[in-house]
Amino acid sequence: MTSLRVLARLCRLLMVVVLGMLMASVIAVGERLGVKANLVRRQRWSCIFMKRLVAALPFDVQVRGQLPRQPMLWVSNHVSWTDIPLLGMLLPLSFLSKAEVRHWPVAGWLAEQAGTLFIRRGGGDGQRLREQISEQLGQARPLLIFPEGTTTDGSQLRTFHGRLLAGAIDQGVAVQPVAIEYLRDGKPDPVAPFVGDDDLVSHLMRLFAQPRSQVHIHLLPPVQSAGKERAVLALQAQQAIQVALFGFEVVAAAPRRQPKAA
Questions:
Q1: Separation of first and last alpha carbons in the chain
Q2: What is the DSSP letter of 225?
Q3: Which range, of 17-26, 59-68, 175-184, averages the lowest pLDDT?
Q4: Is the dihedral angle over the CA atoms 203, 208, 209, 214 positive or is it negative?
Q5: Is 120 in a helix, a strand, or coil?
Q6: 104 exposed, middle or buried (CB, 10 Å; 0-12, 13-18, 19+)?
Q7: What kind and span of H or E run contains 200?
Q8: Judging by beta carbons within 10 Å of its beta carbon (0-12, 13-18, 19+), is residue 226 exposed, middle or buried?
């Protein structure tokens, strides 16, 4: 039964990949003919692809809360590569993603076409990244980032990097916190996390070998950014997601004391 389950799911996923390739081909042919699709249209196509991809994954998805009516900076905890299609299916979004995603077949190309900003780990180009995020938000384009900077096993949150939220402060754009949790039989799903040196194919095969699990997406009340320090804004977003996932707030670190002048 497990082998049949995996085979059936792989076949469905293959159909989605073919759809993505067709979409990519249409966009590429249009560009060759001088008919370049604008970013809004490309994001819509990416959203359609994300919906089909999620439908091919072994998840029962429940979305709680209201989608924002205004473009915002979305911030979410990060558990797996599947976070991207799960959130990307909700509405046309751009992403801030690690550079490796650009080289993923089909999905990476579509992500690039949808305006994804790719960041190298340890790139050290924080000011340029801030300007790119600010530019996206300034053009009323919703953007999603994972301010932990890496995936976790879902049992805890890492500290949110405030520098990634600076663009929202620059533009006076509100932050939309999103909490995503993977559950299996009412407990944290041990299969869903994509951490460490795991590879995409192995992770996908493990997911497909298991019965369907549950994903809860919590769209939390927006956090206003105007007049706030980036560390404060990051902590407020982190607290909101922490409470949604675990029912309690993180303990804020005490502010560092400035050395006295000699």
A1: 74
A2: -
A3: 17-26
A4: positive
A5: coil
A6: middle
A7: helix 200-209
A8: exposed
pLDDT per position as a tens digit, 193-241: 998 888 888 999 999 999 999 999 999 999 999 889 999 999 999 999 9
Could you tell me the residue ranges of all domains in the chain?
2-246
Span 81-108, average pLDDT: 83
Give yes or no for residue 256 having a pLDDT over 70: no
* pLDDT grade for 254, boundaries at 50, 70 and 90: very low
Q: How far is CA 6 from CA 1, 128, 183, 188, in A?
A: 9, 43, 20, 22
Tokens 């359609």 map to which residue?
48
Q: What are phi and psi of 25, to 5 degrees?
A: -65, -40
| Contact present, 155 and 188 (Cβ < 8 Å) | yes
Cα–Cα dist 63/214, whole Å: 11
Residue 210, SS3 per DSSP: coil
Tell me if 168 sits within 8 A of 225, measured CB to CB: yes
φ and ψ at 241, to 5 degrees?
A: -70, -40
Q: How far apart are CA 74 and CA 233, in angstroms?
A: 13
Beta carbons within 8 Å of 74's beta carbon, 6+ residues apart:
87, 93, 142, 143, 144, 145, 175, 176, 178
Provide DSSP, 233-251: HHHHHHHHHHHHHHSSPPP
Whole-Å CA distances, 76 to 17, 175, 213, 255: 26, 10, 20, 24
In this structure, what token pair is assigned to residue 40?
């809004």
Q: Is residue 118 scored above 50 in pLDDT?
A: yes
- Residue with token string 């690039």: 112
Report the length, in residues, of the chain: 262
